[in-house]
Structure formats: C-alpha cells, structure tokens
Amino acid sequence: WDETHFGKMGSYYINRTFFFDVHPPLGKMLIGLAGYLSGYDGTFPFQKPGDRYEQHNYMGMRGVRLCRLFCAFLGSCLVPFAYLTVLELSKSLPAALLTAFILIFDTGCITLSQYILLDPILMFFLMGAVLSMVKCNSCADRPFSASWWFWLSLTGVNLAGAMGVKFVGLFVVLLVGLNTIYDLWDLLGNLTLSLVMFGKHLLARVLCLIVLPLALYTAMFAVHFTVLNKSGPGDGFFSSAFQSQLIGNNLHNVSIPE
C-alpha cells in the first residue's frame, strides 16, 4: 500500500502536479528524481497495491533486482554505516563485523529496501547523522581541523535530511543535541580553554547543527513549491491566493485581494 502511496507522489513530481502530504517533501522528491533519471515518465497510475507495472520503467525508484538503484542502494548503505559507527565507538573489529553481519541478514531491512518507501531514505539519513556525530567526536582532539569541520557539517546535512523525509527525524536531532550539550559542558569545564575559544566552539555548532540544517530544510520546501506548479489534488488545502499561482487551477492568474 505504501509503495502505491509514495510511488504516486514520485509521479506527481515528475508531472509537476501539486499535492499535499503529512510528511516533509525530501523523500518523495528523491523518489521522483530517481524515477526521472532512470527513464520513468510518471504515467503509471498507482491505483491499488499489486497492480503490474507492465512496460513502465519503475526500476530506478524501487530497485528490486538492480539493488544499487536508489531505495535499495540507500538500504544497502546501512550496513557500512553501522559497521563504521560500531567500529568507531568500540574499536572492536569483531563487534563491527557482527553488527554488519546482523544487518545484512535482517529480513525487515531487506524487505523495506525493496520497495518505493520513505523508510530506507529515512534510515539512511538517521544512521548517517549518527555516524557523522561519532566521527566528529573522534576528532575532538583536533578541533577546527578540516576533518572536524567536515564531519560536523555532514552531521548538520544529515539532520536536515532526516527531518526532511519524516518528522520522526526529530529523534536523531534530539540525540545529536544531547551529545552537543554534553560536549559543550565538558569544554566549559576545561579551565585550560579560554572563553573566546569556547565561544568559537559554540558558534561552530550553532552554524553547522542549527543554521545549516534549517537552511537546507527550508530550501527543500522552496524546491517543492517551485517544481509543483500545476493544479492537482492538493489545491484545496491551501489559500485562494496560493491556488491562483497554480497552472490549470480555476483561480489561475485571478487577482486575489490580501
């Protein structure tokens, strides 16, 4: 059922048809982009679960057999992400290998990654945020180095990605936030560190973990509203003034008073 739901929304992006959904737009936009780049023309109706795709080129979005295509590719990335995270935290190769082995043969993970769903995209950004956070923590002895900035910025990018797919991404924002508070509290208690240097640490985290994710999250909606410029099933959820901007709407180009 969910594949019918999100596959249809991928088609809406390809056809630039406006719709409304409870989830933020990033996951559906990426599904639509994957379908577009792989040759899908957005014409499959996605009417009910189990409908045959026939001649429609859906493989780029789903990737049942071509396991490196989008959802399946992102799902497969969870294995190295988990391996690297556990290796960084435990410094134990057997523990990291065991973690990767468990995920490789996890039926739920394999199944979720076979279909046009938001779940593998969400898990990709969730685990990416955790891995980036752990890697950034490992660079604590060399603050403001290139690698430190890279992992800190990548953490912010992944936070925006997780929030941009589903609001469940707030939980990883909470995790990174608590880790950051602990880190800053530890730095504040370091008597060898000047207040100026502490201010730089604080500013760096505000820029990379608050400003950057918010800017990216806002940009997703800017792209969403720019691409979906044709009248569709989501028109009625918005004001008359907004509907007047949608091509094909009854109110298109009508002057709407403030």
Beta-strand percent range: under 5%
Discrete helix count: 10
Shape: flat
> Helix/strand-derived class?
mainly alpha
Q: How many angstroms does the end-to-end distance come to?
A: 41 Å
Rg over alpha carbons: 21 Å
Helicity level: 55-70%
Biggest β-sheet description: none
Mean pLDDT: 89
- How many individual β-strands? 0
List the helices and strands in order. Answer: HHHHHHHHHH
Number of domains: 1
Low-confidence stretches: 63-68
GO molecular function: mannosyltransferase activity
Domain ArnT-like N-terminal: 1-229
Organism: Tachuris rubrigastra
Main location: membrane
Outline the fold blueprint.
Blueprint: H1 2-15, H2 26-37, H3 71-90, H4 93-104, H5 107-112, H6 119-138, H7 146-165, H8 170-188, H9 195-227, H10 240-243
Helix pairs in contact: 1-2, 3-4, 3-6, 6-7, 6-8, 7-8, 7-9, 8-9
Domain ArnT-like N-terminal: 1-229
Pathway: Protein modification; protein glycosylation
GO biological process, one term: protein O-linked glycosylation
